[in-house]
Amino acid sequence: MNSFYILFLFLFFFFSSQTASIKETTFERDFILPRPPVYNGIQTKSKNTIYSSFVYHEHLQEHGQFLKPREVCQYDDRINYRVVRADGINFSHVYMEDTYKMDSELEFYYIKPTNQNNSVAMKIVGQSNLEEEATISVYSYLSISTEDKSAICSINFEDKQPFISSYSSDYNGIINLKTHFQSKEPLVTSYYAVRNDEPYLATDIITSQFNHYGGGIFQLPNKTDYSKGVPNFAIIHKVFQTPFEWIVYFDSEDDPIPSSFVFDEQFIQQQLAFDSKFDSIFGSQIINATHNQFGKQVLSHLLGGLSYFYGTRYIYDPYENKTFEFYDNELYSCIPNKFYFPRPFFWDEGFHDKIVWRWEPKLFENIMTSWFNLQNETTGWIAREMIIGSEAQSRAPEWAWAGITNQMNPPIFFFTLFEYYQQDPQSRITFLKSIYPKLQKTYDFYWNNCLSTVTPYTFVWLGRVGDGTLDSGLDDYPRAPEPTKQEVDIDIQSWMVKLSYVMQYFAQEVGDTKNQSLYHLEYTETLKKMREIFWNSKQHVYQDTRYQNGTLDEKIEHVGIISVFPVCLGIEPIDNGNNQRVKEMIQVMNNTSILFDEQAGLRSLSSKDSAFMLSGNYWRGNIWINMNYMCSQGLKFYEQYYPEAKTLRNRIEETVINNVIKEYFKTHGSLWETYMPFTGLGYNNNPFNGWTTLVLLMMAQLY
Ligand SMILES: *[C@@H]1O[C@H](CO)[C@@H](O)[C@H](O)[C@H]1NC(C)=O
Ligand SMILES: *[C@@H]1O[C@H](CO)[C@@H](O)[C@H](O)[C@H]1NC(C)=O
Ligand SMILES: *[C@@H]1O[C@H](CO)[C@@H](O)[C@H](O)[C@H]1NC(C)=O
Ligand SMILES: *[C@@H]1O[C@H](CO)[C@@H](O)[C@H](O)[C@H]1NC(C)=O
Ligand SMILES: *[C@@H]1O[C@H](CO)[C@@H](O)[C@H](O)[C@H]1NC(C)=O
Ligand SMILES: *[C@@H]1O[C@H](CO)[C@@H](O)[C@H](O)[C@H]1NC(C)=O
Ligand SMILES: *[C@@H]1O[C@H](CO)[C@@H](O)[C@H](O)[C@H]1NC(C)=O
Ligand SMILES: *[C@@H]1O[C@H](CO)[C@@H](O)[C@H](O)[C@H]1NC(C)=O
Ligand SMILES: *[C@@H]1O[C@H](CO)[C@@H](O)[C@H](O)[C@H]1NC(C)=O
Ligand SMILES: *[C@@H]1O[C@H](CO)[C@@H](O)[C@H](O)[C@H]1NC(C)=O
């Protein structure tokens, strides 16, 4: 046994004990969540995860052919996918238009019956837009994680109808998945139960059975298959002619869904409750009915990605050139995009949570706690991207699995917590106190890892490789031609000014007076250095700067969104309306030949910049909604003393909102990761249901 193994054992226990502390802070209800990489489906929030989904494919009888089952979100499925309503906890409604070959529309509804802890009722509705009826194969399955050693899934019968009957440790007993209603007799019903080491996926099981036929129609083999071990996966198959409707109930034998439950009635109740909660939180400023409807969908898009992850994760230490494996991690978080990024990101989540805390405070606290529980207790490091467990890993390239221990993204989470706390200090102080020691550690991580060597109180991103500064969160934003430690970067400098400001405020609130004075000193010194070193008086903006031949004033002459961060973060002094720099930066932001795009909002890079729209073209001009939100928030901070800040904020809001809505309706209800300069066209990933949803807060005027 080597020391590596001992370290590993130690960490295993370390994580086990952390896991226990997470459980105490989670919701009482073991509620059901949407699953990140699949179109439809739910899972329990537990190590012994139970999965359930609807999967379908077209049934081309005459050709004896079957198409790929629709399960994992994939662009080449050519599906218009939309979360119509979801509150992240109690219900969801997803719409899919499948235009590839069959031109069908399918809708999926999930609802937790009120007063029940662990039951779910699910409904699929299908119809075809073609003249003749379409034939569709639909599957409903129930499976249990391989972590649950005593799990069994099997097929049972009631009135000759097959249903799934399972044993789950989490329920301490029998759970069932039963047909409750079908609008018409299916052409075929068949079933199968088998051992599946990827219980979150039905596609491989279904396609492996494509050679089974009965009466000219594909069928599952109608058996419980013990050949690979005790089955942990069971599936029911039905073939319907459109239009059809199929409702199944998932519940436990000791707490069954009562016969008084009426699906549509409860669904409408939940939706009404959602709508009125939306109106009371976000709706008062959203008068236009189209905008109001759009806002409800946008919120649902974000909450429809609220996910739970459990399992192994990897960490790469570049100094040791070693990858470490850790078991038993839990994370609860939203995700940006089901198709390309079905996993959580630290910097994105800080932005998502500006919406989440307004919607459901407790949800935000649980999310933030679960992120900070994955912090390295020694260094304070938190991975940029979390790829936890085999389902998440199956949707990411292997080289990306490991978090890199010298890379950390900007501290948006701290600022979101700051905003959250300030809304209601009295009731939120307990939460602040509970997380404060962890905040201190992560704060220290930035100081220990991002400090520049050229002069005290300045910062640089050190995780840079070629053109990519992934740790900055602005991947290909142009920096100095080649990375050196002689560089200091204005974005991290600005983050650190704001972060030390926020930390001294938190320290004061929790009564940590000694550290408060330390943090205060750090705040004033970093601000002073920012104002001394980074300002370019010819271009009227802040810029990255390089130390050359004993002087600090060689500017990296790019003008972009980070050049105005001191306004966007509200860290440039207000100075009773006399701060010339604020006025100058506002002019740069408002200038259409520099940052302001009349179609879409603030560009990430000036249209005059030498790197504008050049190779990669990610953070090189495209319009990002999180940045537009953040800058509007900053402008609001100056409005009382600088009337031009309000004019500009309103101009940004109007432009961003109109363009995002225009593109949304033009592209089947899609939000996009970015919008292109000059045309405003949606660009890069879609549907992008991450921080683009901040358009909601811009409409609601909530900053
Ligand atoms: C979910 O339903 C419960 C019980 O009806 C309710 O208390 C809670 O507020 C709902 N959650 C959300 C996010 O609306
Ligand atoms: C449901 O949860 C509540 C609150 O945790 C608990 O009091 C109740 O006993 C649970 N009901 C069942 C049937 O498990
Ligand atoms: C499979 O079972 C179903 C339901 O019991 C039955 O309708 C169907 O004919 C069976 N299929 C075969 C091939 O036996
Ligand atoms: C409401 O918003 C839509 C979409 O932005 C716009 O076309 C319409 O003119 C607005 N209606 C009113 C009354 O302002
Ligand atoms: C890191 O280790 C791998 C093998 O584990 C080796 O191939 C690679 O060259 C090493 N890289 C460095 C920079 O030492
Ligand atoms: C935390 O960081 C320390 C120091 O780099 C390292 O030895 C340890 O393995 C890390 N632990 C975890 C859980 O990441
Ligand atoms: C200040 O914070 C550090 C952690 O960063 C902690 O170890 C120390 O006890 C704190 N000082 C006081 C006086 O509370
Ligand atoms: C810095 O010094 C080097 C070598 O002495 C010289 O080539 C270079 O031009 C100087 N750069 C500046 C900005 O003065
Ligand atoms: C906008 O910027 C351009 C290029 O720097 C400059 O020539 C022009 O005067 C500016 N316009 C305004 C209105 O300030
Ligand atoms: C921004 O530019 C527009 C169009 O040139 C102008 O109408 C507006 O007054 C400017 N706003 C500010 C704050 O300077």
UniProtKB/TrEMBL annotation:
Stretch forming the signal peptide: 1-19
Family: Belongs to the glycosyl hydrolase 63 family.
Protein name: mannosyl-oligosaccharide glucosidase
Membrane topology, from the record: Single-pass type II membrane protein
Enzyme class: hydrolase
Coarse class of the protein's main subcellular location: endoplasmic reticulum
GO cellular component, as recorded: endoplasmic reticulum membrane
Source organism superkingdom: Eukaryota
UniProt KW keywords: Endoplasmic reticulum, Glycoprotein, Glycosidase, Hydrolase, Membrane, Signal, Signal-anchor, Transmembrane, Transmembrane helix
Record GO terms (molecular function): Glc3Man9GlcNAc2 oligosaccharide glucosidase activity
Ranges of residues in domain Glycosyl hydrolase family 63 C-terminal: 263-700
GO biological process per UniProt: oligosaccharide metabolic process; protein N-linked glycosylation
